[in-house]
User: Fold this.
Amino acid sequence: MQELFILVGLLVALLAIGCPVAFAMLIASVVYLLTSSLPLLQLTQKVAAGVDSFPLLAIPMFLLAGGLMNTMGVTDRIFRFAQVLVRHVTGGLGHVNVVASVIFAGMSGSAVADAGGLGKVEIKAMRAAGYDNAFSAAITGASAVIGPVIPPSITMVIYGFLAEESVGRLFLAGAIPGLLMALSMMILIYFLARTGVYACPRLPRASLCEVWLAFRGAFLPLLAPVILLSGIISGIFTPTEAGVVVVLYVLLIGIVQLNFSWRHILHAAIDAVRTTCATMWIIACSMIYGWIIIIQKVPDQVVTLLSTNIDSPLAVFVFVIATLLFFGMILEAIPVMLITVPTFIALGAVYEIDPIHLGVVIVLTMMIGSITPPVGLTLFTVMKVAAISMDRLVRAIWPFYLAIFTVVVIVVLVPQFAVWLPNLVFGAR
Assistant:
């Protein structure tokens, strides 16, 4: 038990002084191994084994696809199509922002790719139309987190890897909650515009000719989610292979429809490699830390402790959500999931909670953390794109926390929103 206190205490201390989370977990694990009877050789074995997983290959592919869409101008076509659909609704370009993110989510699966690529187009257009900069940035940040919920989703891939669950089921499980997120945000935007909290100039309704031209320009990008989901459902390719398919498809769009350039591939590949290396390093370092936590039977001890105080599945969800909201403020989503998911899975099994349902709730809750200070990665991306301070952005974005949290509560109380679609397609378990 003393060694365990050293492990956890050292991790907390390192994080408190600003040590990167991957190195904090690695250093704490090394100190633990040196002070225990376990061989130090376990360090290299577990770190190497942590990223030796076929499903994780989807991460660099979806990151590359998102980067290619941004550099080749696919995002501009998506935004123009969303614009002709809903720009005339009260809230104007705010709704366009959300709809564009829903479409982009069906291709990239990354909130940062949405905020950094599509966000540039969205914020520029909203500024030009006279929207408040903080409000524009807030909508962009909030709508970007739809990306990891609607399939495909990098976060779902990681959860599936940790929980040993079907990534295909998880992808489909996120579809309806992702659309609920978009609907909740659009209702909020409509309310804020209608009550005059923010000035939202309305653009004229698009003509049929404008709609047709925008649809024709965005037709090939709009086919991407259809191709991905139909391929996964029919078994033509796995969710991991879907990452390769979407990259090839985006390249095809660039060759056929856009000004294809090898420079686009180079820039997108460099960004994807950087992000992939950072993500994989965090996963690798967390594997040795997680292994130590497991051999110390921490999940079992937590489950035993909580089971005496928790008497229903609803109480389990309350604990899970409260834990993730707390850690989401101080850590990025991937480290939080790597540390907590094994315990959550064990706790959920005691109360017979469907791991697919639990996974959707976890991912939805973690999305709040990604736009919560002080370490929300999506939040920082939007701050950079919009050139806005954190305090201004947070003051504008806080109502969207409530909108997303409302969806979390709905999904908890009505599990069918998460499990109905995967059960319909793959069969009930």
User: Anything to note?
Assistant: The chain has one domain: 39-426. The chain is about 75% helix and 0% strand.
